[in-house]
Amino acid sequence: MKIIIDTDLTNEIDDYFSLVYCLKSKIEKDLVAITLEPYDPFWHDYGFNCVMDKNLEVAKEIVNILNKNPNLIYAGSLDFFQNVDKNKDIAAVNKIIEIAMHEKVLILAIGCLTNIALAIEKEPSIAKNITLYWLGGRSDNYKIKYTRNNHIEFNLRQDIKAAQIVFDSVFDITMIYSKEIAGNIRIPFDTMQAKLKNSNEICNYLLEKYLSIDLVKVMGCKTLYDIAIPILYTHPEYFKIEPAKINKITAEGNYIFDGKMANKVKYCSQLNNEKVINELLAIIKN
Predict the structure, then answer these.
(1) Count of CB atoms within 10 A of residue 46's CB?
(2) pLDDT tens readout for residues 247-267
């Protein structure tokens, strides 16, 4: 099966680690695209209009350091679903359609679902060929009213409409909740430095970026939520996957179950944190 990693790359450092893992693990041989998602840069020192340029810059840096093909990188939508001209050509959207029109594709989604929803809106027939692993949602998202500042999980609340379209269309979705399940994937900087420093160029690059984060300077670590998604593919035995009790998302960002829908949604109820961390470190160090 072909693989796409769909990432809001420069939103947080965990995306950097996830992309490097994809390019150095067994995923790389089936990886056909790195598609870049928009995100709300409210905690960054730049505006929304700079997001995709930042994504492209870092994607090219990582691919260059690893001596991989830069043609894997596809710029995504510059805005969220409802604000986008659906007839506009978007490289990431077109690439998703190109692949999924002809064969099965696994999308490792570690951001909002804008690009995927736009692809399905443009070519609905591709939905049947998409398997989605999504780092998104949280179990306490049920029945809460959406506002910009409430605690609806970030990847969902940024583009609820996109998530609705994907959940209504794709028949094979596995979710990893960011807070409860992936929220313990933390590697203290001292440990990371001891394991990775001077191992190779990409390790030094990641360490430099990791240490530049204020939270790491203060607390000594930053949660690496997103790495759970690619490792779910390479090592499913590290995860406990169960049928989800939801299969639909409302306009308010709530999860519900619709008995008329055929969607088969699963979720991760448990992961082996130690094994996930050890796998990450081993692969990027190699």
Answers:
(1) 11
(2) 889 888 888 888 877 778 999
pTM higher than the cut 0.90 = yes
Is the pLDDT assigned to residue 99 strictly greater than 90?
Answer: yes
Domain count, the chain: 2
Rg of the Cα atoms in the chain: 18
248 residue type, one letter: K
Q: Which residues contact 76 (CB under 8 A, 6 or more apart)?
A: 6, 35, 36, 37, 38, 52, 55, 90, 91, 92, 93, 114, 115
Q: Kindly report, residue by residue over 216-250, the tens digit of the pLDDT.
A: 887 888 999 999 999 999 999 999 999 888 888 98
Residue 242: strand, helix, or coil: strand
Q: Give residue 199's domain range.
A: 188-222
Task: Reduce the DSSP state of residue 15 to 3 states and report it.
Answer: helix
Residue 282 falls inside a structural domain: no
Cα 8 to Cα 111: distance, rounded to the nearest angstrom: 5
What is d(CA 85, CA 87) in angstroms, rounded to the nearest whole number? 5
For residues 86 and 121, is the Cβ–Cβ distance under 8 A? yes
- Together in a domain, 135 and 112: yes
| Side chain identity, residue 123 | E
HSE-CB of 182 using CA atoms within 13 angstroms:
25
